[in-house]
Every structure is written in structure tokens, then in C-alpha cells.
Amino acid sequence: MGRKFFVGGNWKCNGTSDEVKKIVSILNEAEVPSEDVVEVVVSPPFVFLAFVKSLLRSDFQVAAQNCWVRKGGAFTGEVSAEMLVNLGIPWVILGHSERRLLLNESNEFVADKVAYALSQGLKVIACVGETLEQRESGSTMTVVAAQTKAIADQVSNWANVVLAYEPVWAIGTGKVATPAQAQEVHFELRKWLQENVGAEVAATTRIIYGGSVNGANCKELAAQPDVDGFLVGGASLKPEFVDIIKSATVKKND
Ligand SMILES: O=C[C@H](O)COP(=O)(O)O
């Protein structure tokens, strides 16, 4: 079974309502491959989620950038999975390295969130990735395998999970992983899934790449056999996001 190309736009903590309207109108007017070829999901900050959902073309979806680890209640500042479901938000990004590193989210905490969000019916973009120090010490696979294992320990149904490999050293730095570096980790991650979760999950789970993806480097990355799409930060706020969506056609003849 083919893995449909997936392009996520993580807007992070950016945007005013005017800027958000502008990005959405660029997306709404863009001519891009059909839904059969590419799944497009944009992730605005919480405050703009409902607004973006109401304006966005119907073949694109929205994602939250985080959600609370369990049922809502007395957790000031948090947003629960149930609330997202109630608003009709289908996706959530969990385990982004900015949250792992700046907010000390551990592998287990991220995995708890993934399991809870899935149990409530959300689809999850689960992020993994190593720091520069970890890469340079040769522990890239140990790190991403541990992050993935924490999730696999709690999740048996991977149908609603997209795994995002985002090397921390490539995020927002302009220092993109080479296509060979991305392919190597994606291949190893798929192998890890095959050996530890199962052949079916390994064959069908989309593993997308994130880290300084832009309109110029996306095609070569998309051409890698184990790269099933992208999670885009900075460039998702610019018109070149449309070119990144179009890179899905590289896979068309798979
Ligand atoms: O979630 C997206 C990643 O953090 C990539 O961000 P970036 O494209 O700005 O490097």
C-alpha cells in the first residue's frame, strides 16, 4: 500500500490575524496536486485554529501544535484533546523538539500525550530527532529509537500516526539535512518499526522530514524513498510552501 505524501506547515508561535488571513488566502488560491496525491495540514497557534479552519479550503486540514496529556480540568493554560475534537480539529503535533528541549517534555510524557490524543480520536504528528551534540557523538539512532520506543510502548494502532524526523540542528538554522542524511535516518526508523512494531506498520507509517525545508531543497529530499513528506516551519509562512506541497509529484509514479 502506498504512503500518501504528507506536508505539514507548523506556524509555531507566529502571526497576527491579518498575517494569518494572508497565508490562508495564498493557500486557498494555490494550484496544488489533488488530495489523492498529497495530504496538507497547517498548524496555526491555538488562538487562530478555529479561524483558520473556518477560512481554509476544504482539501486542507488543520492541526494543533500541542495538547494536554489527559482529560481536561484544573490545568491552567492547557488545551485538552477533547476540546480539539469538539472543535473539529483532526490533527495535533506532539513532541516537537522545541517543547522537548525548552519545556522539558520527556520521552514518556510525549508518549503519554500521543496515546491519550489517539484515544480521543485525534491524528498525531509525533516528532523525534537528535541534537547536534548527539549526532556528533554518533548517537542519532539511539536517541530517535528511544523516542520512538516510548511511543511504541503505549501505542498499538499506528494508523493515525505520522512520524516526523526533525534533527534539532536543522530546525530554523538554514542547515538542512542532506537528502542522504535524511534518507539514512528514515530508513533506520522504518527498520526499527519493522523489527519492533511490525512489518505492516513499518510499510504504511509515513515518516516525514523537518528542518529547514524550503522551496529549493524540497524536491531532492522528496525523492528519497523513505521520505514521505515534510513538517515545515519557517517556509510554511511564505508563498514557497506551495512549492513544497507541489514536491509531492516527485512520488507520483511510485
Ligand atoms: O516543525 C517544524 C520544524 O521545526 C522545522 O522548522 P524550520 O522549517 O523552520 O526549520
UniProtKB/TrEMBL annotation:
One of its GO terms (molecular function) is triose-phosphate isomerase activity. The keyword Iron does not apply. One of its GO terms (biological process) is glyceraldehyde-3-phosphate biosynthetic process. Keywords: Isomerase. Pathway: Carbohydrate biosynthesis. One of its GO terms (cellular component) is cytosol. Pfam families: TIM. Belongs to the triosephosphate isomerase family. Homodimer. This is Triosephosphate isomerase. It comes from Macleaya cordata (Five-seeded plume-poppy). The lineage of its organism: Eukaryota, Viridiplantae, Streptophyta, Embryophyta, Tracheophyta.
